[in-house]
Amino acid sequence: MHMNNIPKIKLGIVAVSRDCFPESLAVNRRKALVAAYAKKYDAADIYECPICIVESEIHMVQALEDIKKAGCNALCVYLGNFGPEIAETLLAKHYDGPKMFCAAAEESQDNLIGGRGDAYCGMLNASYNLKLRNTKAYIPEYPVGDAEDCADMIHEFLPIARALVGLSKLKIIGFGPRPLNFLACNAPIKALYDLGVEIEENSELDLFEAFKKHEGDPRIPEVVADMAAELGAGNKKPEILPKLAQYELTLLDWVEAHKGYREYVAIAGKCWPAFQTQFGFVPCYVNSRLTGRGIPVSCEVDIYGALSEFIGTCVSEDIVTLLDINNSVPKDMYEESIKGKFDYTHNDTFMGFHCGNTCSKKLAFCDMKYQLIMARALPEEVTQGTLEGDIAPGDITFFRLQSTADTKLRAYVAQGEVLPVATRSFGGIGVFAIKEMGRFYRHVLIEKNYPHHGAVTFGHHGKALFEVFKYLGVAIEDINFNQPAGMMYPTENPFK
Prior knowledge:
With 496 residues, the protein is an alpha/beta fold. The chain is built from 16 helices and 18 strands.
């Protein structure tokens, strides 16, 4: 599946060398690293900078110009030996983009005189100098290794770099204030600017006007046919497809006309209360289709939800969704379908739900029909347009990046799975299981005032997401995760 709303990373590898060590150590180790990467991964991911920096700021400038000319949007500073702590950290300081440091391990016990590089030591000085210069860089969990190890480190950095580059060129487009009685997704936008993200806030009246102008758009039949093909037998409300197609074209045209100088876009959309009566449908299915193409659309003008979804799209290079951390799993369902079959307690389970914004590719089965909750208070025909079905079972990561009321960034990451258990409910919904979810729910989600919306990637991406949040400057104590039993939260009662 092609996603053209996320960056492609080309990472420049620059080897550095200290002048009292043989330069050949850094050069040969760089060549071995590049060869190891090309053997295991896609060689197009990386660019080998031919300039080997000795202890020289002049070489640092030459290397910067070279990787810029080569079109690199990420950097790996590779310590082939001890490395020149000033030049190598100036390189990171002046490089405008995500950067990482890794270091060469010694190669053989038979070559520990002429062939010893001491990069293990040099890595300490590099980190110290980065801090002196207030320069951020990703340093892997264990940053010293042979060519194959360092190739793996670089490959692990790519999803992190994708998210960082993506955010630096992202515009979030919002429509309308959050619905009444919906303070949950309200958060100051100042923190977005701190992240380098642009935001454009519009009235839903502007959106309605644009929608009206798309009436009779000649492209509508083509989009209707595409929707019908996607839905197949699940097309329960075919009469609403022309309006949904009109709305999809409205959003796509808005994105093109309003992205300005930014390369990537996410949308925080409106869906109730007046949306249904004025537009004549609900936008969930359209939101699912755009998200499926890599343009996340959050519900209920959830700006930080859209931000989180975009980060997840970059990291996973896959479709994401946004769900309410919604309802408990009934005891009888747990007893019948989960207990003894899966290694989870009842409190580890919950249901994740939204009306119908999850892409059909991530549902086990689906129907496009009407929104039950809204139809309780409105004529059913104006609530059509939700994509309903059980979310496909498999690994997931639940996460969110959020601004607090006083504009501090805070995040959580929890890995788990969607269980192959029939939900017997409505909407886009799944039975989720996350180890120690009960404690996480109480001491992170409730204690730290997170809203009920969480972003979901389909797969375990916690490692990369954690590093993205760290790189973005989220304080370590504010990157929360589902702590294992025996590791207490600060607010947990020891006598419980």
